[in-house]
Amino acid sequence: MKALTALALAASVLLSGSAFASADLAKKNGCAVCHDASAKKVGPTWKDIAAKNKADKNAEATLVAAITKGAKGKYGKIPMPPQAKATGDAAALAKWIMTH
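Now predict its structure.
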């Protein structure tokens, strides 16, 4: 029983740590300038992005492409420019966005 409790605690620490790491990645890459978890800024919220892409089985790849190549028309008139600075973190960011 103690081993199971320790395993559950370790898993929760790892999961919460990855959430913080991704929020830090979003700040590091400038994502938080235009996006937020729940408040609309220049771009849609991460929650809205996740909801809009939840039926897409390739959602993470779609988001990686939007992050690295830019996107327009999916969330309104304001386009998202390519985020070359975030290329190395794009997969982790996409995975994290889809958890919202």
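The first helix runs from residue 2 to 28.
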